[in-house]
Amino acid sequence: MHFAIIGQGLAGSALAIQTAKRGHEITCFDLNVANSSSRVAIGLVNPLVLKNKTLFDPSQVYFNYFDRFFKGISKLFGRDFLSRNLIREVLQEKQEIHNWNSLQNNSKFDSCIGPIENLNIPTIKGIGMGIIKNSCRLDIKSYLKTIREWLKENHHLRDERVDSIRLIGENILVNDEKYDGLLLAEGVEAYWTEKIFGKLDLSPTKGEGIIIKSRKSNFDFPIHRNIFLLPEKKNIYTVGSTFNRNFSLQSPSAEGKESLIKDLSKLFLDDYEVIDHWAGIRPTTKNRKICFGWHSKYKNIGFLNGLGTRGVLTSPFYSSHLLSIHSK
Questions:
Q1: Closest of 260, 261, 272, 266 to residue 214, by C-alpha
Q2: What is the DSSP string of 48-62?
Q3: How far is 187 from 303, CA to CA, in rounded Å?
Q4: Side-chain half-sphere of 84: how many Cα atoms within 13 Å?
Q5: Contact 283, 28 (CB under 8 A)
Q6: Cα separation of 288 and 44, whole Å?
Q7: Phi, psi (5° rounding) for residue 133?
Q8: What is the pTM assigned to this prediction?
Q9: 40: nearest Cα among 147, 185, 141, 138
Q10: Which H or E element spans position 276?
Q11: How far is CA 24 from CA 18, 284, 286, in A?
């Protein structure tokens, strides 16, 4: 079959790989928008909801698919897009140390709560760091760029807007060209998805982040306390990101920047300058459930949306699951 895929973010890229593995031809339509939610995402993967130290359920199911998927990606492209430097949760009070040790002694958290390390970073305010096991970071920009080049070389990539989808009998016409199947991975816009499947339960959230250049800090693993502090290269760190359901502007805001700087001041003791400020709109849902399925009438039209803040972790599972239920 020849599938058209609309969108080449995290969902669309995973669908493209999974569709090709099943022997299908692909034409992907994507405008490569620089500030799309996937392309500005920070790419972290972790099994915990860090705010309240609860398990992200069912994280182990997602992790099993995630590991297999990215082992395949590494083999296919001859490189690993994952940084295995584990996230450290900064602990600033003795009670937090006690609470972390309690979690470590709970067998339910065996796969994610690691030991406490000494905090030997003079520019980070705290008394210890709890290691989050099985955490990692995807180099999203390189990953999406590589998938894009792979589509160009091995399938078809159309850097164009989809202005027309027509369903005539069993024929699917996208921009007046015929396809055997259609997969919609549009993200927050969801124009054609809602036109074909009806209104989705999307409740987009705005995330903002800043890039800082510090004076003397030099550590190579992600740090978390209310916000993430992520090393990019020497003295350069990403700080992010906010989570805002009530927003009026899609562009970076003074309020978002102020919030990030305020949280950073409680954690980071180094002098720094802000060298960039970005924003992206995530395709989250009201109930935080991912939306996917196949059309009841047009059996070869499916969609995947609503991956939200954990799209890096969940896209391998849901792309595989969507295609699996179609083949049954």
A1: 272
A2: EETTTTEE-TTHHHH
A3: 10
A4: 4
A5: no
A6: 18
A7: -70, 155
A8: 0.94
A9: 141
A10: strand 272-282
A11: 9, 29, 34
> Among residues 130, 137, 133, which one has the least CA distance to residue 111?
133
DSSP-derived pairing of the beta strands 223-225 and 181-184: unpaired
CB contact at 8 A, 217 and 184: no
Interval 182-235: pLDDT, tens: 999 999 999 999 999 999 999 999 999 999 999 999 999 999 999 999 999 999
Beta-ladder partners of 291: 305
Please check whether residue 90 is in contact with residue 119, taking contact to mean a CB–CB distance below 8 angstroms.
Answer: yes
Distances from the Cα of 202 to the Cαs of 31, 193, 221, 285, 320, in angstroms?
Answer: 22, 12, 33, 4, 22
Give residue-wise pLDDT tens across range 45-75.
Answer: 998 888 888 887 667 889 999 999 999 999 9
Identity of the residue numbered 258: E
Query: Rounded to whole angstroms, what are the CA distances from 221 to 5, 20, 238, 271?
Result: 35, 34, 12, 19
* Cα 53 to the center of its chain, rounded Å: 20
* Structural domains for the chain: 2-43+139-202+288-327 (3.50.50.60), 82-136 (no CATH), 205-282 (no CATH)
Burial of residue 13, with CB atoms counted within 10 A of its CB: 0-12 exposed, 13-18 middle, 19 or more buried? buried
Name the residue type at position 278: W
* Long-range CB pairs of 176-181, under 8 A, 24+ apart, other chains included: 177/27, 179/2, 179/3, 179/4, 179/27, 180/1, 180/2, 180/3, 180/300, 181/1, 181/2, 181/3, 181/4, 181/24, 181/300, 181/301, 181/302
Task: For residue 155, give both structure tokens.
Answer: 């399938």
**Alpha carbon of 251 to those of 51, 166, 234, 286: distances in Å?**
26, 33, 28, 22
User: Residue 30 is which amino acid?
Assistant: D
The residue type found at 173 is L
